[in-house]
Design a protein that fits this description.
Blueprint (H helix, E strand, L loop, with lengths): L3 H15 L4 E6 L15 H11 L4 E7 L2 E6 L3 E6 L4 E6 L1 E5 L9 E5 L13 E7 L4 E6 L5 E6 L23 H8 L7 H6 L9 H11 L12 H20 L41 E6 L2 E6 L8
Helix pairs in contact: 1-6, 5-6
């Protein structure tokens, strides 16, 4: 799932690309009976009203909140896109073609007409398309169909059920050590990796960056929050900011499906120190440990069996 650095990269690029462009039409192949009555575009009835609200509107800005890409329009609405596990937004020139897959619910699909990164195999699962006034398109590639697209009045965004419960942003200048500690201690007996990944505690941290931050701080992912010494909590605070900033600097992590809006993969996955390095020697200077994997709340945690201390 795209985490803070990937979503930040996407939103920052779209803010530059889309500003002042107008939405001329919208299309989707999402159509799920299980979403009947829900406020996202997988519900066909909601998609009808969604389409009316955004068609003709102009993009004012793109930004991020937690793991959500927010596209503010000039008509008082903001489109909310959560890319979930395999979704990513792409910008380019596309055309609609007949689907050759008879099992497809929709008998039409979209393909890029541009050579280059947009042809990447990870970019071919187009489920949602906004046609734009420059003749190009903003599309959502979503192999597993888990992504969410919805809309809210811009003035009601921060209190909406989609955004309102998200915790503070860890890269804001106001996010200091005290706030970090206060947020984590809301789950005093929680395992620190799970607490870091809880979006209501802190925004945007997922599996990859929690592993990397805990590795840097020397804390075992199963440590209880209320057992972690204050000096180690300070190290973790610094590590969180460091790995998230590094992730942004490298354009995100493309271990899985993530690509930026131009179809290009990020490079943070070439710099993992713990995540998915199971069985490899620890690269920390002077450490003789090995990277191990453990299941924590249904998710995998990767850690060094020597220098990452278990506080329990």
């Amino acid at each position: 799932m795209p985490e803070l650095p990937e979503v930040h990269t996407t939103a920052t690029m779209l803010n530059k690309i889309l500003k002042s462009l107008r939405i001329t039409s919208v299309w989707t192949s999402y159509n799920s009976p299980s979403h009947k009555g829900k406020d996202n575009i997988k519900n066909p009835e909601f998609f009808k009203s969604f389409s009316k609200k955004i068609t003709g509107a102009e993009f004012k800005k793109g930004y991020r909140r937690g793991k959500n890409v927010l596209l503010e329009l000039d008509n008082g609405y903001t489109v909310i896109i959560h890319m979930k596990m395999t979704g990513h937004l792409l910008y380019g020139k596309y055309k609609k073609v007949k689907s050759k897959n008879l099992k497809e619910r929709s008998k039409e699909k979209w393909e890029t007409v541009e050579e280059g990164p947009l042809k990447d195999s990870k970019n071919q699962f187009i489920r949602f398309v906004m046609s734009l006034s420059d003749g190009r398109h903003l599309v959502l590639s979503d192999m597993r169909k888990f992504a969410k697209v919805t809309i809210e009045k811009t003035t009601e965004l921060e209190t909406s059920k989609h955004i309102g419960s998200i915790g503070p942003e860890p890269l804001e200048t106001t996010f200091n050590l005290k706030l970090f500690t206060d947020r984590l201690i809301l789950r005093p007996r929680g395992k620190v990796k799970q607490v870091l990944m809880n979006p209501e505690i802190i925004a945007g941290i997922g599996n990859i960056y929690s592993d990397e931050a805990l590795f840097l701080a020397g804390i075992h992912p199963e440590s209880r929050v209320n057992k972690i010494p204050s000096e180690k909590m300070s190290e973790l605070f610094k590590a969180v900011k460091k790995v998230l900033t590094k992730g942004i600097d490298f354009g995100g992590d493309s271990t899985s499906d993530y690509r930026n809006p131009l179809g290009v993969h990020g490079n943070f996955h070439h710099h993992h120190q713990a995540y998915r390095n199971t069985g490899k020697p620890c690269i920390k200077k002077g450490c003789s440990g090995t990277i191990r994997k453990v299941k924590i709340g249904g998710r995998s945690g990767h850690f060094c069996d020597k220098h990452q201390i278990l506080y329990s």
